Amino acid sequence: MSFTTIEVASGGPVARSTLNRPDRLNAFSPAMLRGLGEALQRLSGDPEVGAVVITGAGRGFCAGQDLNDPGMAAGADGKPDIAAVIEKNYRPLALRIQSMPVPVVCAVNGVAAGAGANLAFCCDIALAARSASFIQAFAKIGLIPDCGGTWLLPRLVGRPRALALALTGDKLSAADAERFGMVWQVVDDAELPSHAQALADRLAAMPSKALVATRQALDASQALTLSDALTLEARMQGELGRAHDFAEGVAAFQQKRAAVFKDR
């Protein structure tokens, strides 16, 4: 795959998408947003890919929307049409990540600000370098969290912390982000790529269909009663129980061998 503002490396069970505008701390441009969405779309159709890693080039993960980019041009009334930017670029990207048929790991290698932070939280598992930081910078320019931030933050940290982070725009260290439950693990900067690769390798060897169903069930359960969640679990388990991977997993366990999962 050839793109101008992201790099995509595939050819095995783990594919890596790297935001590649290091001179702008990988701030989002329309080309980068479209490129990342297109790359994820293509990877979702590749049967060889079992997991995807998203990271950033250089010293930052993503500084959020590039406010100087021509893509922030004014609407018909002469004022910035941010709603159009969100509908055209951020909405499809967030939904694309949430609907990936394989797990998505985010390796946050530096500052993750605004939509860059929320992109990381959209992913299934986020790892952070020890020097990384997270900033909900929207209030400082008169906006609200986007790229799914209003949905993600309360679910990750609870309403009081979500409001405090969004209203103050204070920088959160990687250690505090881990303590708050926003990222899975913090590792030394030099070890981030290898940790992300090892985690993605592990996930790629697992039953993709069951992992994705787990994501779907956990997300859906937030709006369900316990009774409805139990009904959803029964329906999903019924489908998974008739699939190849369940039979293979049970057989591998009984035969004390490594399972070979195939379902997508």
Could you describe the 3D structure shown?
The chain is α/β, with parallel strands linked by helices and 264 residues long. The protein folds into 2 domains: 6-204, 2-enoyl-CoA Hydratase, Chain A, domain 1 (Alpha-Beta Complex); 208-255, Lyase 2-enoyl-coa Hydratase, Chain  A, domain 2 (Orthogonal Bundle). It has 10 helices and 10 strands. The protein has helices at 30-44, 82-98, 115-122, 149-157, 159-168, 174-180, 192-204, 208-221, 226-241, 244-255; strands spanning 6-9, 14-19, 51-56, 60-62, 104-108, 111-113, 125-129, 133-135, 171-173, 185-187. The strands form 2 sheets. Strands 1-2-3-5-7-10 form a 6-stranded mixed beta sheet, sandwiched between helices. Helix 1 links the parallel strand 2 (14-19) and strand 3 (51-56). Helix 1 (30-44) packs parallel to helix 2 (82-98) and helix 4 (149-157) crosses helix 5 (159-168). The longest helix is centred in the middle third of the chain and has 17 residues, at 82-98. The protein is globular. The two termini are 22 Å apart.
Which short descriptors sum up this protein?
single chain; 264 residues; alpha/beta; 2-enoyl-CoA Hydratase, Chain A, domain 1; Lyase 2-enoyl-coa Hydratase, Chain  A, domain 2; 6-stranded mixed β-sheet; 4-stranded mixed β-sheet; 10 helices; 10 strands; globular
Low-confidence stretches: none
Strand content: 15-25%
| Overall pLDDT score | 95
Q: For the report, how would you describe the main beta sheet?
A: 6 strands, mixed
Number of helices: 10
Q: H/E order of the elements?
A: EEHEEHEEHEEHHEHEHHHH
Structural class by helix and strand composition: alpha/beta
Top-tier CATH class of the largest domain: Alpha Beta
Q: What is the spatial order of strands in the main beta sheet? A: 1-2-3-5-7-10
Based on the coordinates given, report the CATH architecture of the largest domain. Answer: Alpha-Beta Complex
Quaternary state reads single chain
The domain count comes to 2
- Residues in helices, as a percent range: 40-55%
Shape estimate:
globular
CATH superfamily of the largest domain: 2-enoyl-CoA Hydratase, Chain A, domain 1
Alpha-carbon distance between the two ends: 22 Å
Kindly state the number of beta strands.
10
